[in-house]
Predict the structure of PPM-type phosphatase domain-containing protein.
Amino acid sequence: MDLKAIIANAVLSVQETQIRPEKPRIRFRGQKVINTNKHDARGEAVEHIANMLKQHGVPIWGALPIAYQFADYLPEDMSTTYIPFDPNVYESMEHTTFYQRLNEEMLKFLHGVVTGSKPLPEKPENWDRYLYAVYENRNHKKEMEDKKIILPLMCVIEPSKDHTLKDASLFGVFDGHGGDECATYATVHLPHCLIDSLTENSSKLLTEALKDLDKQISVRAEHDRIGGGSTSVVALIREGIIDIAWIGDSAIGALTNDSVITLTKPHNLDDPKEVERVIAAGGMILNVFGEDRVNGVLNITRALGDTQARPMISAEPSDSRIDIKESGYYMIFLASDGVWDVLTEEEIFENVVSFIKNNPESEYEKLAQSVGNTARATSTDNLMLVIVFLKPLSEIWQHFTS
């Protein structure tokens, strides 16, 4: 089925169900809805239509460019044009009215796409340069608070804008706590923060973007009470270099010739330097049911959000840089603690090698499921795992089956 036919089926489905957002994208406990604001409206409009299209089978490379066309198509009073972030300016927009109008305008716009009056995107060249596999599972938790970013090429972010990240790849995992608000916000707005943070010091681009993201979350929390927080682990791949940055205890690992190694050091109370920093900031380490927690609440020491816990809970990222060719890594793993804390590096390595030996390379997308299901057998937490293949599948399979 071609892209136009997939979109036509999506339109029919939306018309039948008269889609409404299944829940507010940004909410907090004790309140039914929370307003958006003019700075965030563009990103949230893009996310709304892109998610709907992806749920109906439209690939990422098609859904996002269409969603940006939609944001540019909307009436001026919807405030979905690009607005630079200003911490001193906050203009709320009533949530229910905003999404009702999005849904009404979305059907009109998609009819234009189907009838040919709106251009259809084409699959970008090199889109499949870094293949990936994803596993996500709510597991035994009431809510799914783990979120992800999958962008094999960032040319689908603000495609009409001339930015230097169009050929870059971005992958991320965010483990929310106290709700999914911060994790969801991060997945929607981090790509825009990266574009807005472009400077000559490209090696620190990820950390600067994460800091800017946290500033935006803090302002949103101040005005509209976003609750909770989120870990963050992100990989930005450009010209054979991987920049990684993390906040909290989500992890990045890598597959080498003979092992899996962890590339990140968690920000938690197992690190004496983190304990020292928390105490110096005025925090207390309290043992709750046998586990040490900052002020008796969090078992991590850094996170996006958690504005009420500052400065004890920091949003300062750690970072590292990897040369893909020099490292020899075959793939990287981005994982929430629901996966990485319950499996040893040896268990992950054995699982990966066993999968490769027993499955053809055409089944590569099931590798994350194989590892994730193994973790789920002993984990009670949400599970999120993103595997990014750094070498051609044929080379990976040949190495581990020979």
About this structure: The two ends are 38 Å apart (CA to CA). The first strand starts at residue 36 and ends at 37.
